[in-house]
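Note to self: keep these together.
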Amino acid sequence: MLVYCSSLALDPVGGAQDVIRQIAVWVGKRCRSFIDPERLGHGIRDFNIAGKYHIQSRVSVDDDNSPVYPFLFCAQLSHADEQVSGRRWVMEVGLQQDTPDSEIICTFLLKTDEVSARVTTPIQVTRPRLVQDIVEHCNPSNYTPGLRVKRLDEKSAAAFLIEVEREERSYPIVIISPLRDGKYLVAPERIRSLLIGIADVVAIQQGANTYKIEDILGRRYAAWRGAINIVFKPRRGGKPSYCESILLHPDDLNNLLEEGKSIESEVLAIITHRTNLPCSWQHISLDVVNRKILRRQLGKSIERAKQNNETAEYVALLEEADRELQEKDNEVAILRSDLEETTVEARKLQADIDGLKYALSGRESSTDENTDEVEAITPLREAISAVFKDDPSLEQSLTIISALFPDRVVVLESAYSSARDSIQFRYGSKAFKLLWNLAIGYWEALASGLGDGQAKDVFGHNAFAANESEVLSAAGKSRRTFHYRGRDIEMQKHLKIGVKDSVAETLRVHFEWLSDEQRIVIGYCGKHLDF
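Structure:
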């Protein structure tokens, strides 16, 4: 099973030998034994340490051990799992350098081999330590994904959106948001270190306005209140600006922690599930190096045969073998390209199918009355039915306004809670009309630049007040202060019905207009609050 696969572009001071030296050091630490870098770099058939670790390496060198370009190298370390019987771990590191002065492509592949299907113990996805060692000592390219944590705020969001939808982007982006207290559920630097070479990591800055960021990026690419959003590379063809994404909510992340799981490992597993296969096609494996060596030997044999005037049949046989190897390589490359295109198209079609299912769910009756869709829409359905019956509760009215005008009105939980406490209120239809006018006429007036003095006319006589009629005590101000997106907002603006000290006949809806967000935030909907 493929566990981890990635690649790096390197420019080490000492060339490929610097990378091979780091590989030898890492292998030596894993095996608790010294591994000679020079011997590893010249090729090892099968070196066994204590019957536990097996080391192999292949390299494209000439008869005098000088590199042959394109230069290829691969080292493999395999060993049994110390805790799971029947499982073997295999780690390969490959190098390719086209010319003595060009950059070195270093590929990594970690996999397991199980003796049978009975070996089912779960694997925690991890990044081999060797990747970090090579990053620290072998000078990776500045364009390497995940080389450093990038920062995001409302000022840089527009430029970031261009990068997200850039068609040439070939790697995922992980967006990490802070909690209300400014802390992160998992350190961005920790995730970055695991994803280097695979994905970029972007941390939303502490104190940044995540609502403005969401407005610029769109909900698909945004993250807030501790959530982590994984945005994959753009889909090519048809909709180049469309990027699939997976949002991990704070509750999901906290559940992982409660189960003793690692958030960073879960993020790595989600990404490598998509990236492992295409990365493995580019991996410089033992087989790749062996084919390179074989083809070179065939080429030399053909030249020798021609120089020694060998029979034409012998030369033709060698040339045919060489041609077949080349054709097989080309066939594999074509099949891999076709598979990648098919995979992308399959994901696109699946997304279209999911969208159609969602759209049709409202037109076709479901045979399963307990589906998530039915459960989600039932409160809205009941609320609209109550409006037609001219008897909606305050909570039902808030539900309708929130569902139909999410871009204009935000209903806080405190408003729903106070509405439930005022279930005895008699004039539900009148309250609904006020809320409807709040979301339509009043919002449109303020959004167009008018003030309260003109916007209030949509409510009729004496149904709106811009502030309280009496001076508020400290406790009165506190009762009218509500928490929204990390800040406390005092809401003196209110809609009103009745003046009696009665839950059944009096209503106050406290709200505030946020001009920077072009939204109305409702914090309270219930009986008259004490001054």
